[in-house]
Amino acid sequence: MPHLEIKNLVKKYGDFTAVKDVSFAVEQGEFVVMVGPSGCGKSTLLRSIAGLEEISSGEICINGRDISRDEPSDRGVAMVFQNYALYPHMTVRQNMGFALKIAGAPKREVNEAVERAAAILRIQEQLDKRPKALSGGQKQRVAIGRAITRSPDVFLFDEPLSNLDAALRSQMRIELGRLHTELGATMVYVTHDQTEAMTMASRIVVLHDGIIEQIGTPLDLYNEPHNRFVAGFLGSPRMNFIEARAEQSREGMVSVSAPGLDGSLRIKLKAGADAPAPGEKVTVGVRPEAFGEHDAGGWTIKGSIAVIESLGRETLVYLDGGQVRATDSESHEGYFAVHRTRQITARHGDGLTVTVDPNAVFLFGPDDETIAFPQSHHSIIHNQV
Amino acid sequence: MGSRFRFVNVVLYGAVSLWSLFVLLPLVWMVIASSKTRREIFLDPLGLPAQFRLDAFERAWSVGMGTFLFNSAIITFFSVIVIVVVSGMAAYVLARSDNKWMQLVYLMIVAGFAVPVQAVLVPLFQMVSEAGMLNSRAAIVLPYAAYGVPFTTILFYAFFLDFPRELEEAARLDGCGRLQIFFRIILPLSGPAIASAAIFQAVFIWNEFVLALLMLTKPALKTLPVGILQLTGEFTADWPAIMAGLSIAVLPILLIFILAQKYFVRSLAGLGK
Amino acid sequence: MMTDAAKTSLTGDRGRSGAPRSAKSANAISTSVLLGPALLLCGVFIVVPAILAIFGSFFDFGITSQNWEFVGLGNYGRAASDPVFWIALRNNLIIVVGSIILQVGVGTILAAILDRGLPSGSTIFRTIIFAPMVVSSVAIAIIWLVILDPNVGALNAVIKQIGLTPPALGWLGDPNIAIWMILIIAMWQFTGFMMVLILAGLQGIPKELYEAASLDGARGLKAFWYITLPSIRNILIVAVLITTIGGFKVFDLIYATTQGGPANATQVLGTYIYQQAFNLGNMGYADAISVVLLLIAVALGWLQLQISRRA
């Protein structure tokens, strides 16, 4: 029996349907991250699990019990809010113990639970302070501590790190990972930040327009996205997309060509995929790290460097391909994002040539479903080193 | 530039000083006149008294200024408490509901703010008198509260709209019902709004005249504004006693105002929002 | 990690035993508990009297009399042909227009000076000028009554000292002067309030706006005209509306000084309603005038709501 199960959940606001018939299950001890662009329904879904939104139809089960009509406090969930939501008029101790106090637990028990949670988060020193006296990171620890004190069946996180600065955010990511292992608890985490999703999740749920696009481990989603949306959403900088046309296909291979690029790519379709008819619109997807430097029997893009970002151990180049442009690109200018795991000394305007290896690209069909994956992810990585 | 700057400053200081003087002189004159003799005030209205005396204060006090003060104080106190609690609760429900009927209720309450007491004086008096509520301190608290509720509800409504929702959601997850959320989370964090509302209503009720004039006619129940008007009848030509009575009525509230002027100003300026 | 006791108390027995808990009815109960008192108070003391005033305006009746005689629109007809009603309405309008010019006008100037014109001391000035606002109108009326008194008043003493002749009938006794004196007393009382209201608006103008303007060459009066006034436009409108509403509601000040006299020269709607109802016993007629006042007040209140919503 799954620990948390969502069945056919629908949430409507008037005529607008925020969550459209969503179902998935979370096992005991999993760290599930729900991710998607703003307005995709991820927060609504989380708040429905918490009981802060009344669902229109469907079921939410924890340990097999349908809790979808229960009061939030009767569901055995605890939530960590984006703005911490600490009660300003209570001390840290009172904040953390409030739920148990309302539930009528004896003082001694409340205190023990608070102390235990404080020890896990190393905030014993802060217990008698008011939230106002704490830094952002400390507030977030207290908010997490408040959840731990309640000993919930499921922890819910609503973009808990988005108010922290970059350094603190990566520190808290590690901390949350540690907590998850230490508590062995089931956690459902909402974020719009794909880095958080990739780094922390045992499984990721990608939501878009109120439906689930794909569920899987971070690397599954990165390596084998079901469609162009998932492919574009995970990975930073995002995947480069090149609009192309299918030509003839034979024996599980399809040739595609794109305006402005000489020759055609012969790409191996994934098993069971329908080959696009000749002339149909397809999209070629190239991860920034998948651009080669030597001709591998595919396309060659000759261009000039529009922007170069040197990060020390790695370099990001935004390549202006002249007439050849990436669609739906990170830079909105149609530049290609190229990632290199070494230092490059070049300047704006310098020429750069990259190659597209037909074995290293994704291919998305006319309906944006993925119809071809790169042949070997490892080989791509080795090629680049 | 330097000398011009100083000249402009002198003009601006002059302007506000002149107005301040215009405001202060009547009050100063009131205090001075109250320590004069009847003869002095008649012969030399502007001069200082030959000798500082308090007998006018004694005469004024003997009419019952103490009673008036007491009546005003308790009526104001209870009215303000009723207003704050009742408006706070109502504003909370209204601010947290997107139900159409509730919005209509809010609009009705806002409309109530526009109704002046003077325009309903006749029926209000009839109702109160039919209900046998004339000459009752407890009874006048109710209409006072009623006329304070609309504005205070509007004030709290705006405050609650800005109140962080996540705190309430956290409280729901922590097991609080709606009443518990209101009394354990919202109220303790509404200090500034409550202070603003309370000061505003206190000033208004402390000075309210027409309802008190109609509804509290027994001397032992009269409030300060009605009581001091009675002074002019009581002491036909005893100007020092009248001025002493006014001083007793005016100086305490002025003192409180000066001590807490920041809060008074903030509270009353809120009307502009 | 979970203490069993805590877990039970949190997940609760309600859910587990499957007993449906009626969240909706609990909500309805708490709604009525929270909203009920306000609705009851406003309903009984505002809505019902307002309806009764409209109802009563179609009848003739006295304070204690039980006979209500239906007169239809008779009371309104009576008002239309009653010169005192028109004098009262005119006086309300004089007070409204005069107060807007004096209180909002002077208040704006004082606020602008306090906001940016003085290097120091603005809090003291603000406190003094605002002070009359916390004093009861009755007390203010009596203080001025004495100041303006022909025999012992300070004003006459000053006028005589300068060598001029004060009005023979007294400042408040002369029908041609009295209403203007009322206007001055009202100005003394409320200008500070307007000043503080407008000052709050002025202090909301970001400093950068003035800095940018001064780089563009607008300083002093020019900055006031091009930056300050447009920025507080909405506050000024609200101030005008508050003053207008106050001008129609005026009662205490006149009741405690002239009671509408001499010869109805300072009569306003508020005092006239009171006089007709409680001195002359024409309750129905008083109700009709009340309805006129009510309509004016509600219309102005609605306007104020619209404007503050836009702000």
Automatic annotation (TrEMBL), chain A:
Q: Does the keyword Endoplasmic reticulum apply?
A: no
* Keyword flag Plastid: no
Instruction: List each coiled-coil range.
Output: none
Q: Which Pfam families match?
A: ABC_tran, OB_MalK
In the UniProt record, the signal sequence range is none
Q: Which PANTHER family match?
A: MALTODEXTRIN IMPORT ATP-BINDING PROTEIN MSMX (PTHR43875), MALTOSE_MALTODEXTRIN IMPORT ATP-BINDING PROTEIN MALK (PTHR43875:SF3)
Which family does this protein fall into? Belongs to the ABC transporter superfamily.
* Protein name according to UniProt: ABC transporter ATP-binding protein
Lineage, uppermost ranks = Bacteria, Pseudomonadati, Pseudomonadota, Alphaproteobacteria, Hyphomicrobiales
